[in-house]
């Protein structure tokens, strides 16, 4: 289980790094927002991997961790932009 958790941390780091490269860091997070995006990716992957293990078993848990991390990072990064569009 420890190896799976380390794999999920790696998946979360990769998802967060790709989100940073795509410019999905919310500007209101300031200069250290990159750390929040990486942490959000790691946290979402750990939660997704745990849920995937409980629901689908160890074989599919990493795939679930990947998709939950992607959805969480993109949704939380795009939320301020969508809120700004609503105020117009």
Structure explained in plain terms:
- With 88 residues, the protein is mostly helical.
- The chain has one domain (2-81).
- Helix content is 84%, strand content 0%.
- Helix 1 (2-21) packs across helix 2 (33-56), helix 1 packs parallel to helix 3 (58-87) and helix 2 (33-56) packs across helix 3 (58-87).
- The longest helix has 30 residues, at 58-87.
- It is elongated, with a radius of gyration of 14 Å.
- The chain starts with a helix and ends with a helix.
Secondary-structure content class: mainly alpha
Work out the helicity level.
Answer: over 70%
Instruction: Note the gap between the termini.
Output: 48 Å
Compressed to H and E, one letter per element, the order equals: HHH
Q: Which residues form runs of ≥5 with pLDDT under 50?
A: none
The total strand number stands at 0
Beta-strand proportion: under 5%
Largest sheet: none
CA radius of gyration is 14 Å
> Helical element count?
3
Which overall shape is indicated by the principal axes computed on the Cα atoms?
Answer: elongated
Taking all residues together, what is the mean pLDDT?
91
Number of structurally distinct domains: 1
